[in-house]
Each structure stands twice: as structure tokens, then as C-alpha cells.
UniProtKB/TrEMBL annotation:
InterPro entries: 6-blade_b-propeller_TolB-like (IPR011042), Beta-prop_PDH (IPR054539), Quinoprot_gluc/sorb_DH_b-prop (IPR011041). SUPFAM superfamilies: Soluble quinoprotein glucose dehydrogenase. This is Soluble quino protein glucose dehydrogenase. It holds the Pfam family TrAA12. Residues 27-417 form the Pyrroloquinoline quinone-dependent pyranose dehydrogenase beta-propeller domain.
Length: 420
């Protein structure tokens, strides 16, 4: 009997997941690899892990929330053990978050955030509640990203984008648009609240779909810049403005000077390519400098923009970063760039790594850097994008420290090797 068991052990240890051919091939930087864990999804967007190591993903294609159990045989040798619909709701489109104790699940639509009691062992939900409401925009920027910081587990962060490319009304904080607001979970469980009742964690953010927490409790976000930009009558939109990495302070420090800051939108944006901006050198404009869209006049000047919160890092225009997640020691952030529609040739369509100093919780590169985002997974030929490319949306680290990524155009979930 013992000999028979011993003979079976190598077979058990050598189990391999079946290969799933990707819809579009990906190229990986040295030291990185990846494979498709699951395909055939319906426009997967948000992705998180529960405390049992199961994936929860929102599917924008009218499905709701999916619960996925995994078999993990080491490295990227990961595959689906079982999959089922956890929540059926065609209005669910992106945001998903779980309290650190794994017992309360939050999901969003264009207008509403709901909560459920959650059991990760059985993959079941109960006791649905509406917790935040009245977030409708006029058909523009439909995502409502959610984050529950581990450093402040009674806080739910809810992002809301602009109502238009240039949403002039978003210059008023009481519109509730182009903002991140914070809500006390213990309070919103008692009765639903209007979005405007949340604390303003940050505003002047055009469409900050990606929100993440550094291990030190710092809150970071990535913002999608304005389209069709002009400056003093010149079209500069192909390479400006930059996509932004913004900092919003320590979530457990209410007096943090970066908390509640205005980041410039709708009037102010940050430079990516000063070479196409009229008189950029004379006006002191360089990569990362906030500047005014249109033509400065009177009191409406670049100086007004530079008095607001500047991005900590910039990325190429229109590459559309949609998430930012940190590794365990805080030495790197991983950012998926969903890719452009407003740029020729197309740009983005990649997963990148940004180095951080774990001691300070800040990026290693200066705000003027153009090389801070190092591509680790990308489409070799973006000329065929977006239709014949993978398009990364969200990333999440599993409890064991592996990085997973959703791709909405190819309806896949990937696991990324080497991302530590």
C-alpha cells in the first residue's frame, strides 16, 4: 500500500493545467511570463480575490459577478476548478470590493453601490443592501471603481468620472463628478446615502478608473486625460495631456495635506510632450507640469493650474490606465493600460511596472520622467489594436502573491509570472 501511494505522489505533484490558447498573443519582457487561466467570459472588468483564494470578477457584458475556484499547481500552472454566477445583474459594470475580513462584498453600477453578506467557502451571497446611490452621469464614463483600504477597513472609496470629455460643471465640487469620495461602511449599512454625502478624498480627476492602496496606507490613482486637446489654437492632442498617477495621502491620517486635494480638471491638465505646445520652454512647461487647456488670458493662466495638485508621475497620452495595484513589499505598482482610441498610431494595450521606494511609499522616478512605466506584457504590434489585441483592464494579487489580469476585448483572465 505504501509503495502504491509513493508511486502516485510524483504524478500528483506533476499535474498540469490544460493550455488555453490566447485570443491574441502577448509579448513578455525578460523575467516575465503568462498564460490564460480562463476565457469565454463576458467583458470581464473588475477582479479581486477572496480570503479563500477564489476570484470574483465583474462582467460588463450583462452577466453580473462570477465566482471562480482555482487549481494552483505552482508558478503560472493555474486553472479553473469551478465557475458559477454569483450575482445576476446586467447593470453591474465594473467596481467590486471585499472587506478585509472577507465577509462583506460591494459591487457597483452606473448609479448605485450595493453590499451583500459574503461566504467565500460556499460562494454565496445574501442580505443585499443599497448603500450609495444617485451617481448617474449622462452616458459618459460609466465605471464606479470601489476600494476598501486595508489600513482603514471601515472605509469604502467610490470613484466617479466626468459627464463629458470636458465637463465644465465638474469644476464645482457639489456636482459630485470627477471625484473620489469616502464612506464609513458601518454607517452606510444602516441606510443608503447619496454620493454627495461622502467625504471628498480627491476631486478635479477626469476619469480615475484605477484606485489602489500602497502597503503603507497611501492611496494612489491613475487618471485618463482629456481628448482632442488644443493649446492656443494648435491641435496637440496626439501626445498631450499625459495620463496621470496621483497621490491622495494616507487613508488613516485625516490631516494629511494631500487628502481632499483638487487635481485640476476640467481646466488644467499635465504636459506629456512639450515639443508640440506653443512657447512651452518660455512658459516653463515640461513633462508633468500642470497647464491650461485652450488659450491663457487675464487671470486664467497656467499659474492657476500649478497651484493645484500635480501628478506624481506621467504616462503617454491616451494610453488609458485603468488600475494600479502594489506588490506586498510596496516596491512596485502594476498598471494596466487599456489603450487609445484618440491617437494615431494606437498606444497602450500593455501591462507595466512602476518602481516605488518601499520606505517612503513614493515612486523612484521624478515627476518629469518619461520612462517610469516599464512594459512587462504588451502587444507586439499596436497598429492592429484595439480589435486584434488584448486590452488589460484590472489586476489583482492572489493571497499567495500571484498577479492576475482581466482583458475585456478577448474575454480572458491571465496569470502573470515574475510579477513580484
Amino acid at each position: 500500500m505504501l509503495l502504491a501511494i509513493a508511486a502516485l505522489l510524483p504524478q500528483a505533484l506533476a499535474q498540469n493545467c490544460p493550455t488555453i490558447n490566447p485570443a491574441q498573443q502577448a509579448t513578455f519582457a525578460s523575467g516575465y511570463s503568462g498564460r490564460v487561466v480562463m476565457n469565454g467570459l463576458r467583458t470581464p472588468r473588475g477582479i479581486i480575490f477572496d480570503n479563500q483564494g477564489n476570484i470574483l470578477t465583474t462582467e460588463q457584458g450583462g452577466y453580473g459577478v462570477r465566482y471562480i475556484q482555482l487549481n494552483d499547481y505552482g508558478g503560472t500552472n493555474v486553472c479553473v476548478k469551478s465557475s458559477k454566477q454569483l450575482i445576476a445583474d446586467s447593470s453591474i459594470n465594473h467596481g467590486i470590493a471585499l472587506t478585509p475580513d472577507g465577509k462583506k462584498l460591494f459591487v457597483s453600477s452606473l448609479t448605485t453601490v450595493w453590499s451583500w453578506d459574503y461566504d467565500g467557502t460556499t460562494g454565496t451571497v445574501s442580505n443585499k443592501k443599497t448603500v450609495v446611490q444617485n451617481m448617474r452621469n449622462g452616458g459618459f464614463h460609466l465605471s464606479r471603481t470601489l476600494l476598501i483600504p486595508r489600513a482603514q477597513p471601515d472605509t469604502l472609496l467610490v470613484q466617479r468620472g466626468s459627464q463629458d470629455n470636458v465637463d465644465t460643471a465638474a469644476a464645482q465640487v457639489n456636482t459630485g463628478r470627477s471625484q473620489i469620495r469616502a464612506f464609513k461602511i458601518s454607517q452606510i449599512q444602516n441606510a443608503p446615502v447619496d454620493y454627495l454625502q461622502g467625504e471628498v478624498l480627491a476631486w478635479g480627476l477626469r476619469n480615475t478608473v484605477g484606485v489602489g492602496e500602497h502597503p503603507n496606507g497611501g492611496i494612489w490613482s491613475v487618471d485618463n486625460g482629456v481628448d482632442d486637446m488644443q493649446r492656443e489654437g494648435r491641435d496637440i492632442h496626439h501626445t498631450n495631456p499625459c495620463e496621470e498617477l496621483n497621490y491622495h495621502g494616507q487613508i488613516n491620517t485625516t490631516s494629511d495635506p494631500d487628502r481632499g486635494g483638487h487635481h485640476g480638471y476640467p481646466d488644467c491638465h499635465a504636459v506629456w510632450d512639450p515639443s508640440v505646445i506653443p512657447n512651452a520652454a518660455a512658459q516653463g512647461l515640461q513633462v508633468g507640469t500642470p497647464f491650461l487647456m485652450g488659450s491663457p488670458a487675464g487671470q486664467n493662466t497656467d499659474a492657476v493650474c500649478q497651484a493645484r495638485k500635480a501628478p506624481r508621475l506621467c504616462f503617454p497620452a491616451h494610453t488609458a490606465p485603468l488600475d494600479v495595484k502594489f506588490n506586498a513589499d510596496g516596491s512596485a505598482a502594476y498598471i494596466p493600460f487599456h489603450g487609445s482610441w484618440n491617437k494615431s498610431p494606437p498606444d497602450g494595450f500593455r501591462l507595466s511596472r512602476v518602481e516605488f521606494n518601499p520606505a517612503t511609499g513614493m515612486p523612484v522616478e521624478p515627476a518629469t520622467s518619461t520612462t517610469a512605466a516599464v512594459n512587462i506584457m504588451y502587444n507586439a504590434n499596436t497598429q492592429q489594436c484595439p480589435n486584434r489585441c488584448f486590452r488589460p483592464v484590472n489586476v489583482a494579487f492572489s493571497p499567495s502573491g500571484k498577479l492576475f489580469m482581466t482583458s475585456d476585448t478577448t474575454n480572458e483572465i491571465w496569470v502573470i509570472g515574475g510579477a513580484t
